[in-house]
């Protein structure tokens, strides 16, 4: 079941460097939440804490009001910044592996893979090795890998970097299918214009601290953010 993800007062230091300072925001069911900040602002650190890859020094992450468990996290989908697929395997082999790892039966995995890859526009590449694909198609495969087990929460670290505008629209359409099912989706970017064009909710982080968070339209009005011509919504 989809729930509200709440980050409350997260702190994390690396040596002397305080990477996160009291990071607090929500990712709501059915909302596409854009997480924007310059390189080194703390986006990846925050996402790793959500996924349990990294521990916070203090603060909590709750899912539907209860502390996150390992079982919750297994039902989440994550696309890390450092892309983790095996170059020698085909897309189908890798997605099958991930789907089975999450406990889906072979039939369900096969069906999910076919429909996901078709929607992402790489259906015809399913049986090609990753290393033979263009970077854009490799990235679509990474996004498919985060989605193959039909996650209840989706966290994507820089999913649009390096994608051409058509690929961005394709990926956004797939993410919109997730939010339409009620899934909360959090994606990061260092480009405010990209995030602001695509998201429902906006979280801006600077030097480890949340500068502002809320509904995009309200923030637009409050901060007179520039309006962009191209709209996906
Ligand atoms: P980028 O887009 O460049 O990844 P980011 O917003 O995701 O930026 P983080 O990767 O979260 O930022 O980094 C936040 C700060 O924490 C940076 O100063 C970074 O150097 C530092 N940091 C992150 N991970 C580590 C680590 N494992 N060891 C030491 N410092 C780290």
UniProtKB/TrEMBL annotation:
Subcellular location: Cell membrane
One function term, GO molecular function aspect: ATP hydrolysis activity
GO cellular component, one term: plasma membrane
Gene Ontology BP annotations: response to antibiotic
Keywords recorded for this protein, A-Z: Antibiotic resistance, ATP-binding, Nucleotide-binding, Transport
Spans through the membrane: none
Membrane topology recorded in Swiss-Prot or TrEMBL: Peripheral membrane protein
Occurrences of domain ABC transporter (ranges): 5-232
Family statement drawn from the similarity comment of this UniProt entry: Belongs to the ABC transporter superfamily.
Protein name: ABC transporter ATP-binding protein
């Amino acid at each position: 079941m989809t729930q509200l993800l709440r980050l409350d007062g997260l702190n994390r230091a690396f040596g002397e460097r305080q990477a996160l300072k009291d990071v607090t925001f929500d990712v709501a069911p059915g909302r596409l939440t854009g997480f924007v900040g310059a390189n080194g602002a703390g986006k990846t650190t925050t996402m790793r804490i959500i996924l349990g890859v990294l521990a916070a020094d203090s603060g909590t992450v709750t899912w539907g009001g209860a502390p996150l468990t390992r079982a919750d996290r297994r039902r989440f989908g994550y696309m890390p910044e450092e892309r983790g697929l095996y170059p020698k395997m085909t897309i189908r082999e890798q997605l099958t592996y991930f789907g089975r790892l999450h406990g889906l039966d072979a039939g369900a995995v096969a069906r999910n893979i076919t429909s996901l890859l078709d929607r992402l526009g790489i259906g015809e590449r399913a049986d090609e090795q990753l290393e033979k694909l263009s970077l854009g198609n490799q990235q679509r495969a990474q996004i498919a890998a985060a989605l193959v087990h039909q996650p209840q929460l989706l966290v994507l670290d820089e999913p649009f970097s390096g994608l051409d505008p058509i690929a961005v629209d394709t990926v956004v359409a797939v993410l919109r299918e997730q939010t339409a099912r009620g899934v909360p989706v959090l994606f990061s970017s260092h480009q405010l214009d990209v995030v602001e064009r695509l998201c429902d909710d906006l979280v801006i982080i600077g030097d480890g601290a949340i500068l502002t968070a809320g509904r995009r339209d309200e923030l637009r009005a409050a901060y007179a953010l520039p309006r962009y011509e191209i709209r996906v919504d």
